[in-house]
From TrEMBL, chain A:
GO molecular function terms noted in the UniProt entry: ATP binding; ATP hydrolysis activity
Keyword terms: ATP-binding, Nucleotide-binding, Transport
All residue ranges annotated as the ABC transporter domain in the record: 18-232
Pfam families: ABC_tran
Species of the source: Candidatus Berkelbacteria bacterium RIFOXYA2_FULL_43_10
Keyword field contains Transport: yes
Tree of life domain: Bacteria
Alphabetized SMART domains for the sequence: AAA (SM00382)
Record bears the keyword Nucleotide-binding: yes
Name assigned to this protein: ABC transporter domain-containing protein
Length: 304, 288
């Protein structure tokens, strides 16, 4: 069952400004933030929205959540986005949200307890929001979002500015809630860790248009058809042997790095394992962020 | 005929209220208002210094205005036939209505004009399953206005007693009706004044103009020239807010005045809701 269905949605921003060539003439300047965007998302999916800054991710998210109206097209969404009140303890905002969303008392208490347990936030709900750290506020925001058990959750960079441990606990929570509630989640993030860990499906947006919609791993495989071989070159004789390898390579901080196409990997592996101590060799996938950066720089993706 | 129209309007209003009560919306909105006010009380109780200074400033303003009226009435016996106590009563009415408006709506609407659209904070209100106009209005209540209101109410009762005018129970009943309509109308005037923020992003001027017009609510309508009177009873009907109730207290019931007050309040209510909905469609939010 599709929980989100957007058909050909567009958003144009326009403003009136004086024409620099004719001082008495007013011209309308139009900017197309999103152009003909289609999207269908099923119940329980976690979908990542990727794209460089200014690509139109947040605009699409806001159209889908009903905050702004599309200039044309149609978006049908079941769900909402939340926010807490700055000057109050989170618990007071929760009680207000309880009334706004008409949550029965017993259900509210049960849900609140579950959320406080899962997010370990018993100590922070009675402190004013403005006195909480960013990570603590984010936990409260998530709890507020989920009090009324929404079918769709929009998360715009949920781990931005958080330390590694808090970011990881937020990611765990998102996975947990998706599993328990079958809640459809759309998230934007510049942290590939979020996307890699949470999203099987990604939508890449650039210049307000969808350039890719599909499996995240397939995308990485397609755009990073290579492995990275790293060799620790602690000794002089290793550095000399490394120099003799006939393939594009570089040395960074005493580590020899070779980017090798997957087809040639077995041949190269045979050679280097014969020349170097196996303990000094690692073979890994390219950094996801590098791959995504490569995609952003590319003109168009040919995978659809 | 007048009675028939009046009855019809009240009947429709009553049906509307009943419909709201039936589907539980009225109860829900009252509960939200109660929690918002409770939260505001909790917040304000921790900033006693701010509350006290606000009270002192408000009372000083009342004292300065009384001095001004006292000076004026040393040079004249009446203003458009109103004696000093009636005029001061009119002023307390204006002050009281603006204070009541301040309790639940003024700061929220001021935020709308200055901040919510520009910063994208309106997102919060746009996504809630509650009337966004109501939620924005209720977002920053100033309940300590009630302290000033208490002093202003005492002053108004004193003025009525000292005015020497015969006051009947019927007059008091109609005065209360006019007052309720006036409070609602004043709220809608304020709402209409901030709606252009949806288009202009940041707006001080229009809501500021309405604040200036509010100052005209403290004088009897008779002192204004005809053109000004027409504006103040129709386009920016601030005189309907205060002059009608005060006039009603000192005179026999006038159903036509009440009918007019109800109709213009309904018109402003419909216009405010309609423009707000159109404005929401123009809302572009802010970048994250």
């Amino acid at each position: 069952m599709n929980l989100i269905s957007a058909k050909n949605i567009s958003k144009k921003y326009s403003k009136l400004a004086l024409d620099p060539d004719h001082i008495f003439r007013i011209q309308r300047i139009e900017k197309e933030a999103v152009a003909g965007f289609d999207l269908e998302i099923e119940e329980g999916e976690i979908v990542g929205f990727l794209g460089p800054n200014g690509a139109g991710k947040t605009t699409i998210l806001k159209m889908l959540s009903g905050i702004i109206y599309p200039t044309s097209g149609e978006a049908i969404v079941m769900g909402q986005k939340n926010q807490l009140w700055w000057d109050l303890p989170a618990i007071d905002s929760f009680s207000l949200l309880k009334e706004i969303y008409e949550i029965p008392e017993a259900k509210y208490k049960k849900k609140l307890k579950t959320l406080m347990d899962v997010l370990s936030m018993h100590d922070i709900v009675n402190r004013r929001l403005r006195n909480l750290s960013l990570g603590e506020r984010m936990k409260c925001e998530l709890a507020a979002c989920l009090l009324h058990e929404p079918k769709v959750l929009f998360l715009d960079e949920p781990t931005i500015g958080l330390d590694i441990i808090t970011a990881q606990s937020i990611r765990n929570f998102i996975k947990e809630i998706n599993k328990i509630q079958r809640c459809t989640i759309i998230l934007t993030s510049h942290y590939m860790g979020d996307i890699e860990e949470l999203c099987r499906r990604v939508v890449i947006i650039n210049h307000g248009m969808k350039v890719y919609d599909g499996d995240f791993k397939a995308l990485i495989k397609k755009y990073a058809p290579e492995k990275i071989v790293k060799i620790n070159l602690g000794e002089k004789k290793d550095r000399e042997k490394f120099a003799k390898i006939k393939i594009d390579k570089k040395i960074e901080d005493g580590v020899g790095i070779i980017k090798v196409p997957i087809k040639k990997l077995s041949g190269l592996a045979k050679e280097i394992f014969g020349k170097f101590n196996a303990e000094h060799i690692t073979i890994q996938d390219p950094d996801t962020e590098d791959v995504i950066a490569k995609i952003y720089k590319g003109k168009e993706l040919d995978i659809k | 005929m007048d009675w028939y129209i009046l009855f019809n309007i009240f009947d429709r209003l009553q049906s509307g209220v009943k419909a709201l009560s039936r589907d539980g919306k009225m109860k829900k909105y009252l509960k939200i208002a109660k929690i918002v006010l409770k939260n505001a009380y909790i917040r304000d109780s921790k900033i006693i210094g701010n509350v006290t200074s606000n009270l002192l400033v408000s009372l000083t303003e009342v004292a300065i205005t009384l001095t001004m009226f006292s000076t004026i009435f040393k040079n004249t016996d009446s203003l458009a036939g109103w004696n000093i106590y009636q005029v001061v009563f009119l002023y307390t009415l204006m002050k009281g209505i603006t204070l009541i408006n301040g309790v639940y709506a003024r700061r929220g609407l001021a935020d709308m004009a200055k901040k919510l659209i520009r910063t994208g904070e309106y997102d919060f209100y746009a996504t809630k399953p509650v009337n966004s106009m109501f939620l924005v209005s209720m977002s920053k209540p100033k309940i300590y206005n009630l302290l000033t209101l208490f002093f202003v109410a005492i002053l108004s009762v004193y003025c009525v007693v000292k005015s020497g005018m015969p006051i009947s129970l019927v007059s008091i009943f109609f005065f209360v009706l006019f007052l309720l309509v006036g409070i609602i109308l004043f709220y809608f005037i304020n709402v209409v004044s901030v709606i252009p923020a949806f288009w202009f992003i940041r707006l001080f001027s229009l809501s500021d103009v309405v604040n200036r017009f509010t100052q005209l609510m403290r004088y009897p309508a008779g002192i204004y020239p005809m053109a000004t009177k027409i504006v103040l009873f129709t386009i920016i009907p601030v005189l309907v807010v205060t002059y009608f109730p005060a006039w009603q207290l000192f005179n026999a019931p006038n159903y036509l005045y009440l009918l007019y007050a109800v109709i213009i309040t309904l018109i402003f209510g419909i216009v405010a809701n309609y423009l707000w909905k159109i404005g929401e469609k123009h809302y572009g939010s802010a970048s994250s």
